[in-house]
C-alpha cells in the first residue's frame, strides 16, 4: 500500500510538455507567435503637376478622356471592340465639340476611310452612322466634294472585296456619299454602274438577306434619279414649276453629256440584269409578298423606269451616235414585263398587301407609258393598261378604308400625269371612260390631298393644251360636258380650301386665270365665286370668304380672273365691294381691285349702272377710322386711314369721269348720290359724295330744282358739322386750315355754280335758329353739333368762312337780307325768356353775335 501512494505523488510533481488550451466555439483564433508581419506603410508623393494632364489641357476630350488623336489611333487597333469604342468616342466628342469636325475633317476622313473594309460588321455599321449623323452633316456648309473624294478609292476597293457583306456595305457608303454630293456620281458613273451590274449578277445572296439587296437597289435608284430624263423636258414644256427632285447642278450637266455614250452603254448592260432580278422574285408573288421583297421589286422597277426615261431623253435631245437604244431592245423589255402584268396573288389578301400589288402594277404602268412614247405597243396590251388605269382611278379613289389613305393617294397621284396623254391617244369609247374616271377622282378626293394637285395640272393640259383635240368630234357632247364639269369644280375647290392651304389655292387661281385667258370661264360660276369673296348673313352680317386671308399674290390672281368673265353680275360686285370695305384688306389691293374692275367695265363686261353703284358704295360706306378728323392719341394717328380714304375718293372721281359723257353719267349719279348723302353718313363720306358730285357737275350746275331743294337741307347740316368738328383756334396751324378747306371746298364750288343753292342754305340756317325747322332741331340731318349754342356758333363760323372765300364773298353781297335775318334770329334767341337756355350757352351765343357783327358790317361797307 505504501508503494502505491509514493508512485502517484511522484507523477504529480513531473512537468507538462504540451499544455492543451480549450477554445470556445465561435471565438477567433489568435495568430501564431512565430507569424511574420507583412504590413507595409507608406506616404503618398504629391507632385505639383502631372505630365499626362498637362498634355491634354485645353483639348477636346471624349467621355473617357481621350483626345481626337488618341481616338483616331484606336481605330486601327487589332481588337474590334477597341475600334468600335473609338468610333463611339469620336461621335461623343464631335457632338460636344462640333468645331472639331471643320478643323480636322480631312485628317479624320483619311483615317476613318480605312474602316470601310473593316472585317467586323459592327465597326462598319458604327462608321456608317458616324458619317451619316455627325461628320457629313457637320461639313454641310462647306464644299463637301474634296472631303467625299477622299473616301472614293476605299469605297470602290470595298466593292470588289471577297466578302459579300463588305461589298454590300460599300454600296451603302456610296449611296451616302451621293446623297451629300450628287455630282459625285457623274465622275464615277462608268465604274459605279459596272459595280452595280456585278453585284446584281451574283444572286446567291437574294434569299439570304433581302434587306441588304434593298439597300443596294435604293442606292441605284438614287444614282439613276440624277440622270436627266424626259420628265424634266415635259415639265419645262408645260411651263409648270419643277418638282423638288434631286438633280445635278447646272455646271455639271456638260459632264453628263460628255459621258453620255458611256452611261448609255452601261445602262444597256444593266437593264437586262435588273429584269432578271425582277423575274427571280416572281415565285414570291404567288405565295406571300413580304415587305423586303416588295421594296426590292419596287426599287428594281424604279431603276428600270429611270433608265427608260434617260434613253428617251437622249432621243429627244438628239444626241450623236451611238443611239440610246433601238426599238427591238425596248420591245424585248416591254414583253418581259408584260408577261406578268398585272401582278396578282393566288388568294385573297389584306388591304395592305393588296396595295403592294397595286403599287408594283403602277410602277410597271409607268414604264409602259414611257416606252409607249417611243414605240407603238399592240392594241391588246394598250387596252390591258387602260383597264388597269381605270380600275385605280375608280376603285381606289372610292375606297372608304382610312388606314391606307396616304398610300392610295400616292398610287393615284402617280397615274394622274399620264391621263392627258392617254385621252389624246385613245379613240372611241375609251376617251369618255377615262374622262369619266378622271372627273370622278377629282370630285371625290379631299381638297388638300396630293391627288387634287395632280388633277389640277392634268386639267390644265386636258382643257387648255388639248382644247383642239376635244373639239375634233363635234357630235360627241360628252367630252364637252366633262370639260364644263371640271371647270365648274374649281370655284368650289377654292371655297373648300379656304385659307388653310394657300399654296393649293394659288394653283387653282393660276389655273382659273389660264382658263380665263382662253375664254373658258363660264358666267354661272359667279355664284360660287361670290362665296370666295363674301356672303350676306342674317341681320345684315357679312361672312367673309377665303379671299381676305390669302396672300397678296393670290388675291391679285383672283381679281385678274374677274376680267375674263363675259358679264359680271351685280351680286358678285356686291360681294367684292364688301371685301373692299373690310378694314383687313390691304389698301394696295383695294386700289388694285378698282383698277381691274374699271378695266373690266371698259371692256364691256360690267354694266354702267352696276359699276356706278360699286364705286358709290365704296365712297359712301367706307369706314374712316378714327372718326375724329384730328386723332386724339398717337395710337389713333398710327391706325388712321384718312389718307387712304382721300386717295380712294380721288380714284373714284377719276373712274367716274372716264366712264363717258359727264352729263349722261351725272344724270345717273344725281339721284344715287342724293339718296346716299340723305342717309346722314359720317362727315368724310359726305365730303366724298359732294366731291364726286362736283367732279361731274359744271357751271352753271346740272342739278335739277328738286335736287337743289333736297341738297340745301343736307348741305346746311353738313356745313354745321364741319364747323363743329374743325373749330377755329387762335394759334391754329396750316394743317388745320388745309383740313378745313378740304371739307368746305365742295360746298363753296356748288354755291359758285348755283346761287339759288346758297340762298336756300342761308334760309335753312335762319329757320333753324328760329326753331321752325323741327327736323334739324331733332337732329335728323345734323350728326355732330347738338344744342342751340353749338349750332349757332357753327353757323356763325360757316358764314365767316364764306366771307373769307373770294368767290363766295361776292355772292354773299346778294343775300344781305338772309344774313341779317340770321343775325336778328340769334339776337332774339339770346334775349328770349321763353326758351330755356343755360347761362353758359347764352354767353357762347353772345360771343357768336359779336363775331357775326364783323361780317354784317363788312357786307354793308
TrEMBL record:
Residues 146-204 form the Pre-rRNA-processing protein Ipi1 N-terminal domain. Its main location: nucleus. Residues 1-37 are annotated as: Disordered. Coiled coil: none annotated. It is found in: Nucleus, Nucleolus; Nucleus, Nucleoplasm. GO terms for cellular component: nucleus. Residues 487-617 form the TEX10-like TPR repeats domain. Keywords: Nucleus. Pfam families: Ipi1_N (PF12333), TPR_TEX10 (PF25781). InterPro entries: ARM-like, ARM-type_fold, Ipi1_N, TPR_TEX10. Belongs to the IPI1/TEX10 family. This is Pre-rRNA-processing protein Ipi1 N-terminal domain-containing protein. It comes from Salix purpurea (Purple osier willow).
Amino acid at each position: 500500500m505504501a508503494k502505491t501512494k509514493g508512485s502517484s505523488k511522484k507523477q504529480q510533481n513531473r512537468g507538462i510538455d504540451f499544455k492543451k488550451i480549450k477554445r470556445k466555439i465561435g471565438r477567433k483564433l489568435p495568430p501564431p507567435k512565430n507569424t511574420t508581419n507583412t504590413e507595409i506603410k507608406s506616404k503618398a508623393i504629391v507632385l505639383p503637376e502631372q505630365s499626362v494632364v498637362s498634355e491634354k489641357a485645353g483639348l477636346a476630350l471624349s467621355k473617357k478622356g481621350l483626345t481626337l488623336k488618341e481616338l483616331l489611333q484606336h481605330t486601327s487597333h487589332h481588337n474590334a471592340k477597341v475600334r468600335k469604342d473609338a468610333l463611339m468616342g469620336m461621335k461623343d466628342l464631335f457632338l460636344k465639340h462640333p468645331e472639331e469636325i471643320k478643323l480636322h475633317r480631312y485628317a479624320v476622313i483619311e483615317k476613318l476611310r480605312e474602316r470601310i473594309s473593316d472585317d467586323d460588321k459592327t465597326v462598319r455599321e458604327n462608321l456608317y452612322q458616324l458619317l451619316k449623323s455627325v461628320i457629313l452633316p457637320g461639313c454641310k456648309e462647306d464644299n463637301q466634294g474634296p472631303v467625299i473624294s477622299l473616301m472614293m478609292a476605299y469605297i470602290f476597293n470595298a466593292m470588289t472585296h471577297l466578302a459579300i457583306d463588305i461589298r454590300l456595305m460599300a454600296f451603302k457608303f456610296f449611296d451616302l456619299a451621293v446623297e451629300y454630293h450628287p455630282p459625285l456620281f457623274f465622275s464615277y458613273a462608268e465604274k459605279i454602274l459596272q459595280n452595280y451590274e456585278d453585284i446584281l449578277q451574283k444572286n446567291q445572296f437574294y434569299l439570304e438577306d433581302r434587306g441588304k439587296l434593298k439597300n443596294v437597289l435604293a442606292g441605284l435608284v438614287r444614282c439613276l434619279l440624277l440622270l436627266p430624263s424626259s420628265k424634266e423636258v415635259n415639265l419645262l414644256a408645260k411651263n409648270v414649276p419643277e418638282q423638288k427632285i434631286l438633280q445635278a447642278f447646272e455646271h455639271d450637266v456638260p459632264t453628263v453629256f460628255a459621258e453620255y455614250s458611256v452611261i448609255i452603254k452601261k445602262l444597256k448592260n444593266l437593264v437586262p440584269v435588273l429584269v432578271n432580278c425582277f423575274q427571280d422574285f416572281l415565285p414570291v408573288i404567288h405565295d406571300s409578298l413580304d415587305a423586303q421583297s416588295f421594296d426590292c421589286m419596287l426599287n428594281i422597277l424604279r431603276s428600270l423606269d429611270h433608265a427608260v426615261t434617260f434613253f428617251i431623253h437622249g432621243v429627244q435631245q438628239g444626241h450623236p451616235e451611238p443611239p440610246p437604244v433601238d426599238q427591238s431592245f425596248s420591245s424585248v423589255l416591254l414583253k418581259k414585263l408584260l408577261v406578268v402584268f398585272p401582278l396578282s396573288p393566288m388568294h385573297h389578301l389584306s388591304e395592305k398587301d393588296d396595295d403592294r400589288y397595286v403599287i408594283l402594277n403602277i410602277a410597271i404602268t409607268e414604264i409602259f407609258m414611257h416606252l409607249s412614247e417611243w414605240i407603238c405597243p399592240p392594241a391588246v396590251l394598250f387596252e390591258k393598261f387602260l383597264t388597269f388605269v381605270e380600275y385605280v382611278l375608280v376603285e381606289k379613289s372610292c375606297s372608304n378604308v382610312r388606314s391606307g389613305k396616304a398610300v392610295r393617294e400616292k398610287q393615284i397621284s402617280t397615274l394622274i400625269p399620264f391621263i392627258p396623254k392617254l385621252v389624246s391617244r385613245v379613240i372611241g369609247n375609251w376617251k369618255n371612260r377615262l374622262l369619266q374616271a378622271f372627273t370622278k377622282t377629282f370630285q371625290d378626293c379631299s381638297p388638300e390631298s396630293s391627288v387634287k394637285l395632280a388633277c389640277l395640272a392634268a386639267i390644265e393640259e386636258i382643257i387648255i393644251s388639248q382644247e383642239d383635240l376635244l373639239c375634233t368630234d363635234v357630235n360627241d357632247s360628252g367630252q364637252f360636258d366633262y370639260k364644263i364639269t371640271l371647270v365648274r369644280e374649281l370655284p368650289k375647290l377654292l371655297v373648300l380650301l379656304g385659307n388653310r392651304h394657300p399654296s393649293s389655292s394659288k394653283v387653282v387661281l393660276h389655273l382659273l386665270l389660264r382658263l380665263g385667258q382662253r375664254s373658258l370661264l363660264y358666267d354661272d360660276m359667279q355664284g360660287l365665286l361670290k362665296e370666295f369673296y363674301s356672303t350676306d348673313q342674317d341681320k345684315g352680317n357679312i361672312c367673309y370668304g377665303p379671299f381676305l386671308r390669302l396672300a397678296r399674290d393670290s388675291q391679285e390672281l383672283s381679281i385678274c380672273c374677274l376680267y375674263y368673265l363675259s358679264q359680271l353680275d351685280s351680286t358678285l360686285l356686291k360681294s367684292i365691294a364688301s371685301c373692299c370695305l373690310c378694314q383687313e384688306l390691304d389698301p394696295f389691293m383695294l386700289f388694285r381691285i378698282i383698277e381691274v374692275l374699271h378695266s373690266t367695265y371698259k371692256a364691256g363686261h360690267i354694266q354702267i349702272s352696276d359699276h356706278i353703284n360699286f364705286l358709290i358704295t365704296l365712297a359712301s360706306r367706307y369706314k374712316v377710322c378714327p372718326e375724329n378728323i384730328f386723332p386724339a392719341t398717337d395710337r389713333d394717328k398710327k391706325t388712321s386711314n384718312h389718307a387712304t380714304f382721300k386717295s380712294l375718293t380721288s380714284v373714284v372721281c377719276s373712274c367716274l369721269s372716264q366712264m363717258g359723257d359727264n352729263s349722261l353719267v351725272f344724270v345717273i349719279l344725281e339721284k344715287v348720290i342724293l339718296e346716299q348723302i340723305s342717309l346722314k353718313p359720317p362727315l368724310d363720306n359726305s365730303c366724298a359724295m359732294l366731291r364726286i358730285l362736283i367732279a361731274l357737275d359744271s357751271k352753271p350746275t346740272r342739278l335739277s330744282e328738286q335736287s337743289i331743294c333736297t341738297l340745301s337741307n343736307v348741305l346746311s347740316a353738313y356745313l354745321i358739322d364741319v364747323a363743329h368738328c374743325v373749330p377755329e383756334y387762335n394759334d391754329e396751324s396750316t394743317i388745320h386750315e388745309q383740313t378745313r378747306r378740304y371739307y368746305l371746298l365742295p360746298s363753296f364750288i356748288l354755291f359758285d355754280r348755283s346761287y339759288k343753292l346758297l340762298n336756300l342754305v342761308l334760309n335753312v340756317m335762319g329757320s333753324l335758329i328760329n326753331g321752325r325747322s323741327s327736323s334739324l332741331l331733332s337732329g335728323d340731318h345734323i350728326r355732330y353739333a347738338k344744342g342751340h349754342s353749338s349750332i349757332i356758333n357753327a353757323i356763325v363760323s360757316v358764314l365767316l368762312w364764306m366771307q373769307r372765300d373770294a368767290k363766295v364773298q361776292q355772292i354773299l353781297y346778294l343775300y344781305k337780307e338772309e344774313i341779317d335775318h340770321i343775325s336778328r334770329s340769334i339776337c332774339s334767341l339770346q334775349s328770349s325768356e321763353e326758351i330755356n337756355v343755360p347761362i353758359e350757352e347764352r354767353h357762347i351765343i353772345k360771343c357768336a353775335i359779336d363775331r357775326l357783327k364783323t361780317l354784317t358790317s363788312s357786307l354793308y361797307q
